[in-house]
Amino acid sequence: MSAALIWVVSPNSDVCNGLSFLETTRVLDSSRLFAKEKGVLRSDRRRMKNVKCYSCFHELGFLGSNKNGRRSDVVSRRVVANPSGGLAVSSEQLVYDVVLKQAALVKEQMRSREEDMEVKPDIVLPGTLGLLNEAYDRCGEVCAEYAKTFYLGTLLMTPERRKAIWAIYVWCRRTDELVDGPNASHITPKALDRWESRLEDLYKGRPFDMLDAALSDTVSKFPVDIQPFKDMIDGMRMDLKKSRYENFDELYLYCYYVAGTVGLMSVPIMGIAHESQAPTESVYNAALALGIANQLTNILRDVGEDARRGRVYLPQDELAQAGLSDDDIFAMKVTNKWRVFMKKQIKRARTFFDQAEEGVTQLSSASRWPVWASLLLYRQILDEIEANDYNNFTRRAYVSKPKKIVALPVAYAKSLVSPSSRKLEVTTG
């Protein structure tokens, strides 16, 4: 159960539920388009001609039987650090190191811009600008189709930031679809290794297809570090081999991989308000908290759905402390023990949402409204779980359209709060 989101909007959310990104015709259209431009793609034209979706995945290495991928053991190395089962370094500290690295990257770019007042124009090869614009347009179409509410919010941003957010959203969705999409049963660790190799290539300016090209252009313009992208792929690796989490420390790391990473990807695009007095790393930490909160909400909403797939994304030690086990979850009965357990899990998710709120206030004015709207709507899913008497086995919690409409003006009012009136404390979660 993975989620790709931009700050708080997930492809698995009610806004865009049950949608598949890797549609055969669209993959082929994008591949053929960029195959026309010599030198833009690493692949040749024959590779992209008259292929079916299955053969396309096979050719890229997304299907196969090789189980000895060069990084297939990454997840186990980072989650289990010593034979006793304990973590030598907590997941929160491990993740916060990534936060500090991304924040430092942003600070360095800000210093560079102050020192070099001369703005140098981008060098555009003849014939590529139109293709690049078309690539961004396609990303926008995907975002509009699969995340309608969030797409409307992106229209409030500047054109450059808007396109960049679309590109990141699409890459995250494609990554998520590798393990949750129609071809998920055929995905191997080797396939994810190849996907990571493509990521490294696009960071070097060698995109594979038009959608990769949009992200390649984005990361060349904004200080977005590659590590959160790689970590998200590690989250997909975890989904291939892990269906239980012994404690919250393990679950936290998973939530970071599949959701918190996108907060770190997005802050450089959303932008931090010039008048903000908050340390840069604290804003990133808040974005991380929002991703964690969102994924925890996904997990609590989808307990029944995941159980039907044989998966339990709940801390095993906390289940045991509540007198519960996997058998109780598979029985799908709401008991007093279950209600007590769920209250504690919901309280934890709300704590992360509270941490995240401070960070939203520090974003640039053009980004605050859509993020606030998304945060308020997603947090209401927890209210709906409570309204369903904690029956997240057979009833799906969702926010009704009237409640969504009411949330919009509230979010707008919150977006008007000046960041200069608040200072964030730097915490490690």
Characterization of this structure:
The protein has 429 residues and is an all-alpha fold. The chain is built from 18 helices and no strands. The radius of gyration is 21 Å and the shape is globular. The chain starts with 23 loop residues before the first helix and ends in a 14-residue tail after the last helix.
Biggest β-sheet strands, sense, barrel? none
Q: C-alpha Rg, in Å?
A: 21 Å
Number of helices: 18
* Chain-averaged pLDDT: 77
How many β-strand runs? 0
Q: How much β-strand is present in the residues? A: under 5%
Key terms:
429 residues; mainly alpha; 18 helices; globular; disordered N terminus; disordered C terminus
Furnish the topology, listing elements before pairings.
Elements: H1 24-35, H2 53-59, H3 74-79, H4 91-115, H5 128-146, H6 148-154, H7 159-180, H8 189-203, H9 210-221, H10 227-241, H11 248-270, H12 280-301, H13 303-307, H14 316-321, H15 326-331, H16 336-361, H17 365-387, H18 401-415
Helix pairs in contact: 4-11, 4-12, 5-6, 5-7, 5-9, 6-17, 7-9, 7-10, 7-11, 8-9, 8-10, 10-11, 11-12, 12-16, 12-17, 16-17, 17-18
Tell me briefly what this model is.
With 429 residues, the chain is mainly alpha-helical. Helix content is 62%, strand content 0%.
